[in-house]
Amino acid sequence: MTIFACKFLTSIRGVKSLPAAILTLLAAMTGLSAHCHAESADRPSLVVEDIRCKGNAFTRCTFIRGFLRLSPGDPLSEDEIQNAKLRLSALPDFVSVQIYLDKGSAKGKVAVVIEVVEADRIDNQFSAGTSSRLSSLYQTVEARVAERDFFGTRGTVNLDLEGIAPIYGPTHDGIYTRLQYAAPTLFASNKYFLISGATYQNTAINYPYDAYDKTDQFDIDLSVGRRLFDYSYVTVGYLERLVSQSVSQSRGTRGLFSTNSNPNSNKGWALGYGWNSEDDPYFPTHGSRFSSSFGTSWASVRFRKTWSIDSDSTWSVQLGGTPGTQYRASLDEDQDFSLAYQHTIGASDRFGGVNRGRWYLEPGLSYYGDIAYGRQLLEWGLKFGVRLDTKVFGLVDLYVIASTSEQTK
Q1: pTM > 0.90
Q2: What CATH number belongs to 3-28+120-407?
Q3: Please, is 111 exposed, middle or buried when counting C-beta atoms within 10 Å of its C-beta (0-12, 13-18, 19+)?
């Protein structure tokens, strides 16, 4: 589904399609055991003498050092250096982060150097795809504009826009937009962060057998998060829907229509948990990402794990769709379960100057529940796309999706 369809469908139905066996698989694949956070063998003979920053023209070094849990005089921990790199890489402030050692003033002493490449203050993302799914052909266009260090607060403001227009078959159309502010630090502490925003969604999704979902919602939200362990976090938030209309229709076991008008709970608290150990949010080569949110009228669980095959190739598995980061949702039309192969595209002067890129092939499966005659509807799909980080247009993702559906007995 598109990002807004997933919010309405996958978020509500996806949890039911993730049985305990899959959650157990998540724990096994991400290593959520004592081994995950176990310290590897450090160098006991080395002591941190100094911590320096490099490449930070606009970011204070005290802010950067706050994500490294080492101080002068501490024994060197290579595990902590790697974890700090992941924490800093997850921030929208930096394009890349490298942490390395320099000689100290005496034998056994070292300086830790944190070298960053700061992101542009204005960040653009664009995604466009043509999809043939559930007997419908439609076009999706998504865009994001973000401004960093908003009014000198170190926070990021981003505006997400998504539109979907029908081309042929049952209608898939609608709009989704979100204006959000995210502060990476709160209460003068790097352990806390804040997210607030306003979201509007108006969609009409028609399925086979005259089933449909129609949604018109506008809500505001505020949440506070706390970072845990090496790269995990929890969030507590409040959401209030100022406009909330939702209507769905499906055929029952005897072929009769069943219509459900569900205004949802218009206000309530939400809890979330997630982690991000990926080395890059858009071009990961290893690591995993997990996001979950549970409220009074919705639930969402999403997971991705990536492995390197060689220096140019990776493969990944996703459950529940593409998970977001601590600070924002993903711009991605995805499938409930998918297995993807990605291959690197080298730098080029074409397409406005390509800094990096990859093409990907992603077969997958989506589950739509009981839509007609008491039977479960499944969709088998194949997504092919190209993702580029360009100098002129920002991050660009172009794709096509084709699928076929069937009913279970």
Answers
A1: no
A2: 2.40.160
A3: middle
